[in-house]
Amino acid sequence: MTSTSVLVTGGAGFIGSNLLHLLAEVRPDWHLVNFDALTYAGNLENLGAVEGRPNYTFVKGDVAKPEDVERAFDACPAGSRILVMHLAAESHVDRSIQSGQPFVMTNVVGTQVMLDVARARGAERFLHVSTDEVYGSLGAEGFFLETTPYDPSSPYSASKAGSDLLVRAAHRTHGFDVVVTNCSNNYGPYQFPEKLIPLMIANAHEDKALPVYGDGMNVRDWLYVRDHCEALLVALEKGRSGETYNIGGNNEYPNIAIVKLILETLGKPESLIQYVKDRPGHDRRYAIDATKIKNELGWEPRFRFEQALPLTIEWYLANSEWLGRVRSGAYRDYYATQYGG
């Protein structure tokens, strides 16, 4: 029987590391290749429980460099069927406003390089993980469908829209087996603490100001990362080639409501909230209609927000040492100590 290798790009990031934990748990016979550039968002400490496995390999490299991508594919055992789960991306909107060039290089050029090498290496399937931000902003009503026209607002979302289109083009031009997923805002363990929920948890715990953009009424659909990873595995194994699937959590909340829930849970005063100038092009509302993936693939989120937010808060409080090392930058020494360089 042919063995299976899964090449996960961005596997040291927030969603990628949670995905590798899931795959190690539910697909223990698969060989897992983690391909990550270890930028600021990549943290191998996230994978301590996975690193000792005999069928896990880490490859340090850049998705935009063909020679690095070739090395990642070389790590897949000879003769195994190869599945690609492409998560590597520059993803922080504020950073893209400061400079869009790294986002174009990683998200657009990197995706094309991955597609080219994956096709040449005979990859069986290419799952491309994207975002609902490619659709732009919603008004007070309505939902993003897979057929919603793209209307990105930031350099980040524009670069992800470009990468989505390149993946679709690979299917139409070359007949390459691809699946695209567009998810809503994730939260959960191992998220880099410049994102809303971990930032607010950390600041509230330390009695620091909680910066909230504008009036705080920007609405997002919140998706627990474990639910997202389970959806990605379903899309990888059961999704129809060439199709796009929206993945949402069915949990719409304004940012200010999230912040107040965190304060309430931690027993902290709302006086810690500090409203700050809104960022340019800040989308007002995102909301996903995930009917397609439910009807076609049988997936729907298992975790309710009122259940998973307390779990997330508990995780960050229990892992204060991890959080401190990320915030101080000390986590970046882990690669050198574990891999000798």
TrEMBL record:
NAD(P)-binding domain mapped to chain residues: 7-309
Q: Name the cofactor(s) required for activity, per the record.
A: NAD(+)
Question: CDD domains of this UniProt entry?
Answer: dTDP_GD_SDR_e
**Entry-linked SUPFAM superfamilies:** NAD(P)-binding Rossmann-fold domains
EC number(s) from the headed UniProt entry: 4.2.1.46
Q: Which GO terms describe its biological process?
A: nucleotide-sugar metabolic process
Q: Which chain positions lie within coiled-coil regions?
A: none
Which enzyme class, named as a word?
A: lyase
Molecular function terms in GO for this entry? dTDP-glucose 4,6-dehydratase activity
Superkingdom per UniProt: Bacteria
**Record Gene3D superfamilies:** NAD(P)-binding Rossmann-like Domain, UDP-galactose 4-epimerase, domain 1
* Entry keywords, A to Z: Lyase, NAD
**Which reaction equations make up its catalytic activity?**
dTDP-alpha-D-glucose = dTDP-4-dehydro-6-deoxy-alpha-D-glucose + H2O
Q: Which family does it belong to?
A: Belongs to the NAD(P)-dependent epimerase/dehydratase family. dTDP-glucose dehydratase subfamily.
Tell me what this protein is called. Answer: dTDP-glucose 4,6-dehydratase
Q: Which organism is it from?
A: Engelhardtia mirabilis
Its gene name is rfbB
